[in-house]
Amino acid sequence: MDYEKDFEDKIEKNDPENVVPPEENEKEELYQTEELNSEILKAEEQKQEELETTAPIPKVEFRNNKKSLGKMVKRFRRKMVASFIAVALVSALIGGGVTGAVMKYYGTQNDASAQVVTRYLPLDATSSNDSGILNLIPNIYKIVSPAVVEIDTSTAYTNGYRTEYVPKGSGSGFIISSDGYIVTNNHVIDGASKITVKLLDGRSADAKLVGKDDRTDLAVLKINLPNLPVVRLGDSSKLQPGELAIAIGNPLGDSFAGTVTAGIISGLNRNLQSDYGPVKLIQTDAAINPGNSGGPLVNSKAEVIGITSVKLTSIGPSIQDPFGMFQSQGTPVEGMGFAIPINEAKPIIDQIIKHGYVERPMMGIGAQTITQQDAAQYNLPVGVYVVQVQPNSGAEKAGIQPGDVIIKADGKTITSFEDLQSIINNHKVGDVISVTVWRNGKTFTVPVKLQSSANFQ
After folding, report:
1. pLDDT value at residue 53
2. Alpha-carbon distances of 384 from 63, 390, 417, rounded to whole Å
3. Does some domain include residue 136?
4. Is 355 a catalytic site residue?
5. DSSP annotation string for 313-368
6. Max mean pLDDT range (23-27, 54-58, 133-137)
7. Does residue 427 carry a catalytic annotation?
8. Domain range spanning residue 433?
9. How many domains does the chain have?
């Protein structure tokens, strides 16, 4: 047919072998012709032998014509090329279908980083739906933010016959139970006459102070509203530096309510000195600003693993100004925020909810550390100097007096107030510990019964 001839002509025209020099083309055709002649002769001889056994041998005239054989080779080559084209077309169609299916799930972005992500992550983690890895932080925000609250505080003053409230400050908190318990920092609500809680959904309510703990800077509030969202508490003991850290809160008050910032866990067990000794905190570079205090620090599982509390803005040049309170004398720092580990906070929160206060064992003294330098200057032993003794405390009943220096407790040498506090914290209320005291050059050991801190609040 004509279209078959046209097709063959096009194939022959586009055949790469047709563009080679004529001499090489003739040599190649001659070689192929001789090879084909040999194969044809063998086939004819075999056929002739078969015919001799079954029928009279007809006269066969074989045309060993170079030109006709050349045409046969060309025709054979065209058919092979056509077969290759058909296979290529089928492969292209199959490949296009597979590529289309892949692009449907992985998107059509040309960004190199996106291609790396989609190559090495599971399909469900890279898809464009709401559960994808690219939407991790937005999804965490959707889960946690409804349970994050703004806390506004006011102080009361009396104007003649009526009481008015003056705004004092604001901070953040988060709801831990459907019956309305809220966790925040003590410094957020300290000194407040009125506490108002605002939810992300627009609802607000006056909050009752259940209890607080100055030592850990924690406080628990309670509101009465229905259908309250709650956060899920995680395990801060499993944290590792470099993990994702997300802070949600209300920096600078109502205008920036529901702000989310993200960073990493920069460090663990960071010691910051407080009035009650060192506090071990989580360090993060997630942005924390005034108003974030009391808000949650969240991990990649949308679990609260810390309570944002402190931010360093500068480091002081001296012991008298360790945190750069005098800005002109301090060295500015960036990205150094701190949070109370949730595992440290849980038992405190539970005790506040149960008792309204935190019960801790205590001796009933006020004290300060005597350093090596102090000891040399004032001719005292290194240890803990007793500044005051609480009336009716275990220390008073044991005969400890102001001016005494505690040098041992439970048989262990005491070189700082933190050493003494650590030993006491390992005991329960009612336990008796042995305390070695230095007084006017003499030492003696007395038993001290530990009492509840609630007795001295």
Report:
1. 52
2. 122, 16, 6
3. no
4. no
5. -EE-SBTTBTT-SSGGGSEE--S-EEEEEHHHHHHHHHHHHHHSS---EE--EEEE
6. 133-137
7. no
8. 361-456
9. 4
